[in-house]
Amino acid sequence: MINVGVVGYSGAKFNEDVAKALLAIAFDIVESEFKKKEYAIVSGLTDVGIPGIAYRMAEKRGWKTIGLTAEEAKEYDCYPVDEEIIVGKKFGDESKDFIESLDCIIRIGGGKQSLKEVEMAKDRGIPAYEYDLPEIKEKKASSTTQTTTMPEIYIG
């Protein structure tokens, strides 16, 4: 079994179509480089953002789903994974165990925690497939115009 870690945006807004395309590319690369018949997605258990998309895409490919996270994840909607592993109480407590469980890691966008975990993986010699994905920030219109919000894309 090849354990494929997936990290990225959970609470931020992003282009989901682009995220799905990047995940599909990354999954194809993993399958071509590791050439095994069994794969598992290991992510943070939550059913939001990149983890939720990754779990759904993994199931369509017949991959196992594993949620390895801290107890704090239970405060959010969780994906019905095949296997759930809880380590510690707060997000970040599980990072060491998460990285040690992986054969490779995929990052789609993400914040400080995602970047930290990818660096931890690289330090251990774990292959990392990284894709930047702009976060979509909403900017309020001027008070002299309508009070609608306009999406503004920042590339980080």
Give an overview in words:
- By secondary structure, this protein is α/β, with parallel strands linked by helices.
- The protein has a single domain (2-154), classed as 3-Layer(aba) Sandwich (Rossmann fold).
- Helix content is 31%, strand content 28%.
- The protein contains 4 helices and 8 strands.
- It has helices spanning 16-34, 49-60, 95-100, 112-123, and strands spanning 2-8, 39-43, 64-69, 83-86, 104-108, 128-131, 135-140, 149-154.
- The strands form 2 sheets. A 6-stranded parallel β-sheet has the order 4-3-2-1-5-6, with helices on both faces. It has a two-stranded antiparallel sheet with strand order 7-8.
- A hairpin with an 8-residue loop joins strand 7 and strand 8.
- Helix 1 packs across helix 2.
- It is globular, with a radius of gyration of 16 Å.
Helix content: 25-40%
Instruction: List the helices and strands in order.
Output: EHEHEEHEHEEE
CATH architecture: 3-Layer(aba) Sandwich
Question: pLDDT below 50 for ≥5 consecutive residues: which ranges?
Answer: 142-156
Which structural class best describes the helix and strand composition?
alpha/beta
Number of helices: 4
Q: Please name the CATH topology.
A: Rossmann fold
Mean pLDDT across the residues is 87
Shape: globular
Question: How many strands?
Answer: 8
The total number of structural domains is 1
Described by strand count, sense and barrel closure, the largest sheet is:
6 strands, parallel
Strand order in the sheet with the most strands: 4-3-2-1-5-6
Strand content: 25-35%
CATH class annotation: Alpha Beta
